[in-house]
From TrEMBL:
One of its GO terms (molecular function) is zinc ion binding. Residues 160-361 form the Metallo-beta-lactamase domain. Belongs to the NAPE-PLD family. Its cofactor is Zn(2+). Zn(2+) 1 binds at H202, H204, H270, D301. CDD domains: RomA-like_MBL-fold. Its EC number is 3.1.4.54. This is N-acyl-phosphatidylethanolamine-hydrolyzing phospholipase D. Deoxycholate binds at K273, L277, A365. It comes from Betta splendens (Siamese fighting fish). It is found in: Early endosome membrane; Endosome membrane; Golgi apparatus membrane; Nucleus envelope. Binds 2 zinc divalent cations per subunit. Zn(2+) 2 binds at D206, H207, D301, H360.
């Protein structure tokens, strides 16, 4: 077993200053006070509905890992004006001319076909917990269900964990304009099993969705713990979430009553934005979830950077990693913030993941590659590196897979 993690209460750390690059402008603003709140499926959400707990458990209090390991890892960086930056030479942000070319001239090859073709190529399956809720009894292993884009349900070591939930039709501040999903969600928030924890990677609309947060909070209230990178707690509290844990990179915490499962906010190479002026005001990150029997890694949204080797050295091997494979073309514009399938396989290796599941593809057409290209290039990259196709797999929307830990002594 790995080294015992010494838990120490931490103070807010001073961050070194780095200068930032250009930033991408995007319209839209956060929900205004008094605005009617809509759930992920468009239904009205009653702000008073969430089950109340005895005390407010939102907290900046956190713990950090053993001092001896701290020297070896890359810390988060903030500029003097309070904006976060990426501390690696692999980070680049497109110039204004590149962005203009991308938005006005570059050909979009996504070619999303008719619904009939989509139903054939990318079928949406009702998850097992909708078809047969009796199967919810704990299995020997880690079960992953892909719910589209970067949303996965992970059942491991007695906890049900949801990543970057988006059940809405659009990744947008409003539901009448903005990127629309071409594959619907396989289930509603109401059909989900009990959710104990949600991890959020960053503030972009395809990862932090107002309607989904409202619906999850209406259903689970304070029984659900939200794990977010630094700066996002206020947003969630304004949404009425009362059980929020906000963490810096390498800080860790747990779900109350389950302190044998450690949630660590780990780095990723990305950026954040929800409103015209809030570029990089909130941190982004990946999540390493370390249980007594299983280890799961959620990459969120990321470009390739050296952080994954650090994470692999410290927390690997992982039983399962969820790694993005889509929204990567054109490379000169998007390579800083989105990996391509080949780089996704490199992350899989850096993390020492035994298996990985592909996310961030097949749901929203966010970039210019053909919509079915990511899994094809993924298979090619695995073959080139001599890895088995099953070591980094794709799932249908709504499909589940049971991952059995090599240490558990249980074989399928
Ligand atoms: Zn994204």
């Amino acid at each position: 077993m790995e080294a015992v993690l010494v838990r120490l209460k931490t103070e807010t750390m001073e961050k070194p200053s780095f200068s930032d690059g250009a930033v991408l402008e995007e319209g839209g603003a956060l929900m205004k006070d008094g605005e009617e709140l809509r759930g992920a499926e468009g239904g009205q959400v009653d702000r008073q509905t969430p089950r109340k707990t005895s005390s407010c458990r939102s907290s900046r209090k956190s713990f950090r890992l053993d001092y001896r390991l701290e020297e070896e890892v890359t810390k988060s960086c903030q500029t003097k004006n309070g904006r976060w930056t990426n501390p690696w030479s692999t980070w680049r942000f497109p110039s204004w001319s590149m962005l203009l070319r991308f938005f006005l001239l570059d050909k979009n090859n996504s070619n999303i076909p008719s619904v009939q073709d989509l139903d054939h190529e990318l079928p949406v399956i009702k998850p097992y917990f909708v078809q047969n809720p009796d199967l919810l009894d704990p299995d020997p292993g880690l079960r992953v269900t892909w719910l589209g884009h970067a949303t996965v349900l992970v059942e491991m070591d007695g906890l049900n964990i949801l990543t970057d939930p988006i059940f809405s039709q659009r990744a947008s501040p409003v539901q009448f304009v903005g990127p629309k999903r071409y594959r619907g969600p396989p289930c509603t928030v109401e059909q989900l099993p009990r959710i104990d924890a949600v991890v959020i990677s960053h503030s972009h609309y395809d990862h932090l969705d107002v309607g989904s947060v409202a619906s999850l909070n209406a259903r689970f209230g304070g029984e659900l713990r939200w794990f977010v990178p630094l700066g996002l707690m206020d947003w969630l509290m304004k949404m009425g979430c009362e059980n929020v844990m906000e963490l810096d990179w390498w800080e860790e915490n747990c779900v109350p009553g389950h302190d044998d499962i450690t949630f660590v906010c780990t780095p990723s190479q990305h950026w954040s934005k929800r409103t015209p002026l809030d570029d990089n005001k909130t941190l982004w990150g990946s999540w390493s979830i370390l249980g007594p029997d299983h280890r799961f890694f959620f990459a969120g949204d990321t470009g390739y950077c050296p952080a994954f080797q650090e994470i692999g050295r410290r927390f690997g091997p992982f039983d399962l990693a969820a790694i993005p494979i889509g929204a990567y073309m054109p490379r000169d514009v998007l390579s800083g913030q989105h990996v391509d399938p080949q780089q996704a396989v490199q992350i899989h290796q850096d993390l020492q993941a035994r298996q990985s599941v592909a996310i961030h593809w097949g749901t929203f057409a966010l970039a210019n590659e053909f919509y079915l290209e990511p899994p094809v290039l993924l298979r090619e990259a695995l073959e080139q590196k001599g890895l088995k196709p099953g070591s980094f797999f794709t799932l249908h929307h709504g499909e589940s897979r049971l991952i059995v830990s090599q240490d558990s002594g249980v074989f399928l």
